[in-house]
Amino acid sequence: MSSSPVVRQPRTTVSRIVVASFLGSTVEWFDFFAYAVASALVFPTLFFPGLSPVAATLAAFATFGVGFLSRPLGGVLMGHFGDRVGRKSMLVISLVGVGVATAGIGLLPTYQQIGVLAPTLLVVLRLLQGLAVGGEWGGAVLVAVEHAPTGRRGRYGGFVQMGIPAGVILANIAFLTTGNALSAASFQAWGWRIPFLLSAVLVAIGLIVRVSLTETPQFRAALAASRLTRLPIVEVLRTDWHRVLLAAGTFVAPNAMSYIVITYSLSYATAFLPLSRTMIIWMILAAAVVWLVVTGYAAAISDRWGRRRVLLGSLAALTLWSLVYFTLLDTRATPLVLLAFVVFAALFGAANGPQAALFAELFDTQVRYSGISLAYQLGSILGGGIAPFLATALYGINLTSLPITAYLTLTCLLSFGCALVISETGRRDLAAPSGALDVRREGQPWVR
Length: 448
Hints:
single chain, mainly alpha, Growth Hormone, Chain: A
C-alpha cells in the first residue's frame, strides 16, 4: 500500500489543532456529563416526585438515554454537511447547539413549579443536546486526524478522546464544589443549576478557539478534485455498512463501562450500598484522571503498535475486570471501591485511545464524517445509551448486582469479537481508497 508523505504542520497550526481538539471536546462533554451527574443526584426528585426511589431513578435515566436517540440524527445531519461543506463549520454549530440546550436545562422550572410540562421540556432540551453532540465527535476527530501526519494520527486523535474524561472531571468538580459550598436544601432548590449555566462561559471559550481553525487538508483536496458525494450517508450505508457495524461494535463495551462508572455507579453506591455521595464523586474524579492519562498514552502507542492490537488487549482485560467490578463495589470497603473505579477507567480509557484514528482510517474522505459519526453514535446507543437504565432495571428486578455483571461481560465479548474481525488501519494512506481494508489480513504483523 502506498503511503502519503509526512507533512509537518507549522508549530502554531499544530498547537491550534491540539488545543481546539481537546478544549472543544472537553466543553461539549462537560455539558453532556453534567446531565449525567444531575440524573443520578437531583433529577429523580425534582422532575419525578412521588415515584419510588428506583422508579424515579429509572425515569431520570430514561431522559438521559433520550439524548442518545437524537445523537444518530445529529451525526447523520452534521455528517452530511461535514462531507459536503466542510468539517469546521459543523464543529461551530454543534458547540453552539449543545451550549444553548445545556443553559436551557439550567433555567428549567421543576415539576413543583409547572407540573408535567417540566419533564416534557427536559426531554426536549435533552434531545437538542443529543442532536448537537451527535455531530461533535466526528468533526473534532477529523479536524485532528486529517491534519495529522501519517505516523501521528493516533496521537492527534487522542486529544479528542482525552477531552471526554476532561469533561467528566469538570462536571464532577462543578457539582462537588457547588454541593460543598451550599446546604443540601439550597443545592436541591437552586444550586444544581450552576454547573449548567457555567456552560455559557465554556462555550464562548470553545468558540473562540474553533473559529480560528482552517479546513482540513484532506477535505480541501477532495473539494478541489470534485470528489465529494451528493448523499454521503447513502453512499456509506451502501458500500461501507460492514465497517460501520464493526466500528460501532468495538465501541459498545468501552462506552457502556464509562457510563456505568460515571453515572450508574454514583446512583448505585449512594442509594443502595449506601456510601457517601462526596466520597463517590471524588472516586469518580480519580478514575477520570486515570482515564484521561491512559487514553492519551494508548492513542500514542497505537501509532507504534497498531490500533487493533491496543484495542484487543484493552478489551480482553476489560472483559475480565467486568466480572469483579460490582463484587468490589459491594464490599463497601473504600480501598476496594476505589480500585474498582480506577482499574475500570484505565481499561476503557485504553480501549478508547486508538478509536478516533481507527474510525477515521476506515472510511474514504468523501464519506468519512458520515461514516465515523454513524458508527460512533450507533455504538453509543447500544453502549452508554442503555447501560444506566438497564443496570437500574436489572437491580430493581433482582436486588443483586449479578445480572449487571453478566450484562457488562456480554458487551465486552461483543466488542472483543468485532475487534478480532476489524482491519488494521494505522498505515493507511487517507487519500487512497479504503478497499484494501475489507477484511482482517492474516500473517501480516505490525511492522513499524
